[in-house]
Amino acid sequence: MPRHRLNQYLAEAKTYIHCKSIDYLVLGNEAADLDSMASAIVYAYLMAAQKNDSTILALMPIPRADFKLRSEAVYVFGQAGIDLNNLVFLDELNIEAVMKRVSGLVLVDHNRLSSSMDQYGDKVAIILDHHRDENLYPHASKRVIEPVGSTATLVGEQLITHDLVDVHLALLLCGTILLDTVNMDPAVGRVTPKDEKIANILMPLCHPGRQLYFNTIQKAKFNTADLNTFDLLRRDYKKFQFGNILCGIASVPLPLTQWEQKDRALCLEFESYAQNQSLDLLLSMNVHATPGFNRELAVYCTDLYLHDTLIEFLQKKNLELTPLILKNQTSCLKGKISFYRQGNPGISRKKLSPLLDDYFTS
Ligand SMILES: [Mn+2]
Questions:
Q1: What is the pLDDT of residues 276-331, one digit of tens each?
Q2: Ligand 1: distance of its center to the CA of 150 in Å?
Q3: C-alpha–C-alpha distance, residues 55 and 14, integer Å
Q4: Which domains can be identified in the chain, with CATH numbers?
Q5: Which protein residues have a CB closer than 5 Å to ligand 1 (ion)?
Q6: pTM score
Q7: Contact present, 255 and 280 (Cβ < 8 Å)
Q8: Distance 189 CA to ligand 1 centre (A)
């Protein structure tokens, strides 16, 4: 193993938060997926290696406590030997104060600033992305926007050009490219010739080998062992306003029977989650792939009548719900919770939310 240059850089860069002026802040998109975070880190490293004596800092645009929810990133960063203490998360700085001292923004894995960063458009200096080009920030001096499978491919391309590849960087970028392109499977339609070219150059440095590395990352992504009910609910969560009803829908990759083994007080957890989010309705759509693809549904409602009429409605919409009895659950304080096997696997959150919108607005 070579000396861990990446950790050295990250540790040093972290001290730049306090610098009078910061040359560049490198930022991934607000979803902070593996591509965004890995690309930001490696691109910041690459810029720092090219421009001696510059202050270049990558920011992880989520609170530190949320990092563990991206279990695929936890795994890949671990493989790349990244010391998480060296990373800078959103809740560890005052972004407004820091932005006053930042000269240039580098956007990776997005080309439109999130609404909370929108006011800093003038500072956008460099863009590296694979989403549709929204043609914003014409003053940016460098724009690499190509429809490849992963931003990590574009970062890898630059890394190779500047002869800065090492084992840790290769593990970060390859892991990301493999996940984003589903192991470069042409049938999935995400991989491009450039993803393949860059991954093939970096892959020989990745000791697990392509298939094994991909399988383990994929497995890590759906590993919920370290997550409690609160984490499972917020991990992949969307909030909707349907008429007067505020509704949260979580997508949870765990069978309800296993969730119940983790937590005997599901309703109390749902209740406090709903309360914190001011929800009338909190649904959990549980999906699991073994054995076979299955869907389940948990429905929590603050109002008992609303709960029962909603279930009636869902039955009419052919979700094919059969009640699932979780025997060891403690009861709710006020609202009502119920659990179902969903016979119709075709109704995902994307399909369910417009149905609920129709129901509550009419
Ligand atoms: Mn991406």
A1: 999 999 999 999 877 778 999 999 999 999 999 999 999 999 999 999 999 889 98
A2: 5
A3: 10
A4: 5-221 (3.90.1640.10), 229-361 (3.10.310.20)
A5: 35, 109, 151
A6: 0.86
A7: no
A8: 15
